[in-house]
């Protein structure tokens, strides 16, 4: 046993001697490099995960509003976005809770500030298809009505949460009619006065560009003028909307 300890002692002495010969810069690199690599990898993974989250597929485009705050409650709207696609319309609301307690959102109120319908502009002899789709906003006499959506959303202290609303209509949809809505969103929560999130413009389903600039004959031209007026009424004033809807508004305005 004594010989073994002596052998181990000589090995340790040799290791100390070799370690003392290693330059300080090399010693520093041996410890700092692995730490630097680990930290850098963690940051890259976090950035990749943050950039890739959200969304439910498809090619829908969206635009986001500026932040709005409620000083009395500490709950604020950090983002408001609308996405339009041929088969889906959505509203995303991102909420940030800057208080030290859980903020509970119990209801979302959508006040319909404006409502119009636009149609395919075709010669009178054309018979549109009758097939409809069962799709949750009112499709008649909608202006001025309030549609409530029950919620059960708890935002943790100093946390951010994203809420999505899928938009539908209470009537069967046909390919020759589109419903246009201007919505004022108010969120009711337990922290104080209702939170006014902002104004949005949405369509269901998304209309065709030719409905607004086709002037091939007198009947069609009269229809496209009515459609342009309807779209202008819904898009009048500041509102959050998808890039395709904003572009459609510019196209309709240019055709006027």
Mean pLDDT: 75
The share of residues in helices is: 25-40%
Strand content: 25-35%
Number of helices: 5
Q: What value does the Rg take, in angstroms?
A: 30 Å
Number of domains: 2
What's the helix-strand series?
Answer: HHEEEEEEEEEHHH
Instruction: Please tell me what the overall shape is.
Output: elongated
Counting copies of identical and different chains, the oligomeric state is single chain
Low-confidence spans: 47-72, 125-135
Report on the architecture of this protein.
The chain is α+β, with helices and mostly antiparallel strands and 256 residues long. It folds into 2 domains: 2-52; 61-255, no CATH class. The protein has helices at residues 2-21, 24-52, 210-213, 218-235, 243-255; strands at residues 61-64, 68-69, 75-84, 89-97, 103-119, 146-155, 159-166, 177-189, 195-204. α4 (218-235) packs across α5.
Kindly summarize this structure in a few lines.
By secondary structure, the chain is α+β, with helices and mostly antiparallel strands. 33% of the residues lie in helices and 32% in strands. Strand 2 (68-69) and strand 3 (75-84) form a beta hairpin.
List the keywords:
256 residues; 2 domains; five-stranded antiparallel β-sheet; single chain; alpha+beta; 32% strand; 5 helices
